[in-house]
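Everyone, carefully examine this protein record:
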Amino acid sequence: MLPKFYRFRIVNEMGAQIDFSGDDANNTFVINAEGWKFDSSGALVYSSSELNVFLDPTANLPDGLAAGGASQDNSSDLFMGLNCYAKFTTDCASSGRLDIYYEYSTDGGTTYPSDAADLVESEDLIFRRSIIHPGGSAGSPQVKAVNFSI
């Protein structure tokens, strides 16, 4: 079941910095989702519009570091789950992966596991999905995408 407050976090495992600053359209990352739940009659219903649960980071993301998305408030929609589509576009020359993590807050969206100083994403967060990038060349972006459900 989808918690009241959740967010996504990405970790750059590309072996090189990714230029997510606003001036580089060759490097983008988004997660769009469709929420689902059961209505009062027990019928499965989906969100009426696509949810943007993670939009482009606004700064460069060095290798090995992470960027967190905005906290998502599920208190009024009461979705039980999400069908997600993550899209990563980059012209990074090195090969590697971009890891997507999902985390939730139990205190109203104020504190998340990734706020801890001793965080190890692969041990402390509950979900990981990777987008594999085979390497590219500057000015020739490649698009990689994955679907996943929470």
